[in-house]
Amino acid sequence: MSYKLLIGIVPHNSGELITDAAKSAGAGGGTIAMGRGTASNGVLQLLGLGDTSKDIVYIIIKNSIKQAVYDAIIKASEKKAHFGVMFTLNTPGFIRAGHLDEALDLESSTTESKGEETMSTENNYQMINVIVNKGYAEDAMAAARKAGAGGGTIIGARGTAKEGDAAFFGMKIVPEKEMLMILVPAEKKSAIVEAITALPCFAEAGSGIIFCNEAQDFTVLGKK
User: Within 13 Å, how many C-alpha atoms sit on residue 166's CB side?
Assistant: First the structure.
């Protein structure tokens, strides 16, 4: 059985609207994190719809009910202007605590997903994820915007390693971190990644990491 990670980014205190709609269509519960948009007023597009607080909603759904969940969320938000965005990422496998017998075979799931149809080229988006020490996400977003990105969402985070542990992905142990999420058309990904990695704050080894995912089923929520 294949799964998708549905991600919705909506105004703060609106995440429950997404999770309630998803549950009405058969999805389980979700997780809501708080972030903030970084887009200027002239670039109200993609992930950044203004410099305001955001709810970032994460819901694992079965691929078989994806369309029903999408339809329910779109219907629930259709009267709200510029409400947010929603998209999915492939989730080859995961294990739920207390349900180890339901663990998916990651290798076989990944193989199956390679043959899955993705969206057409004109609707192909990439999610660029940047994790840096606190204070550098704005610099990364500024560089990304100069390279063609519209806006992004910054999430406050913290490292979990303790002194003496091996650094995660070679990053130094700095408790406070920021995660920047930028959704862009696929053809802009390379230029934006190059612009971010060229920043002085990325010159030092271990100062940050960047990883990208293909975002599928990209949808703008609310009234157009």
Answer: 3
Task: Evaluate if residue 14 carries a pLDDT over 80.
Answer: yes
Neighbour tally for 121: CB within 10 Å: 9
CA separation for the pair 213, 7 (Å, rounded): 12
CA 34, 19, 7, 144 dihedral sign is negative
Q: How many CB atoms lie within 10 A of CB 1?
A: 9
β pairing state of 176-185 and 153-158:
antiparallel
Predicted confidence (pLDDT) per residue in 141-200, tens digit: 999 999 999 888 888 866 554 555 445 445 554 557 788 989 999 999 999 999 998 998
The per-residue DSSP string of 150-217 comes to: ---EEEEEE----TTSPPGGG----SEEEEEEEEEEGGGHHHHHHHHHTSGGGSSTTSEEEEEEEEEE
